[in-house]
Amino acid sequence: MYLPDDITLEIFSWLPAESIYKFKCVDKFFNAQFSNDTLFIKKQSKNSLLRDDDSCFFIQPNTNQRYSATTEFHHLCPKKPASSVSNKFLQFLEHYPSFRIVASSNGLILGRNNGELFMCNPVTQSWLPISTPNSLNKYPDADLKLAFECNLEDSHDDFMLFLFEVQDERASQYHDVKFYFKKEGMWKATETSFFTGARSLRFDMHVYHRKALHFISDCSAFLSKKSPFFRPYIMAYNVEDGRSRMLRLPKEARTGSHDSTTQMGIYKWGKSASLDQSICLVRLRKNVFTVWVLTDYEVNQWRRILKIRVEAIIGLKDEEEPIIVTGFTVSNGKQLIFATKMKVYGFGLSEDNYMIVEEVCEHGFESDSVCFTCYSDTLHHCGDGATIFPLLPGTT
Questions:
Q1: What's the number of CA atoms in the CB half-sphere (13 Å) around residue 28?
Q2: 89-113 burial, b if ≥16 CB within 10 A, otherwise e?
Q3: Mean pLDDT (10-residue bins), the chain, 396 residues
Q4: Regarding the domain delimited by 83-310, which CATH topology (the fold level of the hierarchy) does it fall under?
Q5: Domain coordinates of the chain in residue numbers?
Q6: What is d(CA 326, CA 344) in angstroms, rounded to the nearest whole number?
Q7: Bond into 16 cis (ω within 30)
């Protein structure tokens, strides 16, 4: 049966990039018509937002960006892998342990290799160097405070990359903000600073919501009770007007937050293109997961959707006592992913998978605290000037 090109384009644009590349290898017509077409690539990348198809993840030790570390790649559904990355990229990670994955968004990965930054697409094997910020030249071992986002339905930009820097330690509550202009290949300072409050913010995670970047603070007990920043909080930086805003955490989350076992993180909640998209807060304290969803952004109203002990999720039959959670995240705005010393588990949070437990995989970071980077393969362009992956040692 013959289908018009526009209908064929629409059908194929809903496929993961890995599946499209398989057609590219076997179908000359498809290769000629669609695989390198800019409109088709943009459409496929946009449709991935509607699918919220983070079907894979990278897992790394939770250490300084400068340190060498092994990176593992896993599927959320190992029995039915629907997405992948090129073997060349996995080989690259193996040969360059100093390469750290800093962030991932809509098929693009932001990475750091010693003192250099790169944007890459593991499926298309494209690679774009990012100019090194001056602060990294001055302090090569420092962690960069970056926010990377290319899930921008309302923008024509390929991606958005911000850098937050403290220029004066005496005024550490204010961060200078720099934006990366990809067409010029350079960082430029914005007109306004980001007010972060008296606590340190978790720049290793963020949620882009309502045209603002949101970061959660640390939980440590070092401030006076009289301080307005005594309890942890969320700070938002509006990318359009540069305004800073504090969001209160739910009272239950603030209570006991100074406990040494407390870990908190914020993540996207719901589909990217949905009006119900919001922010999800996860707290782990004394091996109890509690999860809230922000239901009213303007008045900081939260709704608790889950409170459960880790032992009740996975039981004790497959784990040695005591069970220790070494890292967690939320994938696709609906599933809690967490690691113990040996394994990774998935736990449903939304209506269609609520409290469904799944053993995802085993991992090799028994003694380490770990961090997750969720990943969805797309054909997303890295931008002008992108090249092919650098050659591996011993290849030509």
A1: 0
A2: beebbeebeebbbbbbbbbbbbbbe
A3: 69 74 62 65 73 79 83 80 70 83 92 88 88 84 90 64 84 90 89 94 94 95 88 96 96 92 94 75 97 95 96 74 91 93 94 91 90 89 82 58
A4: Neuraminidase (2.120.10)
A5: 83-310
A6: 10
A7: no
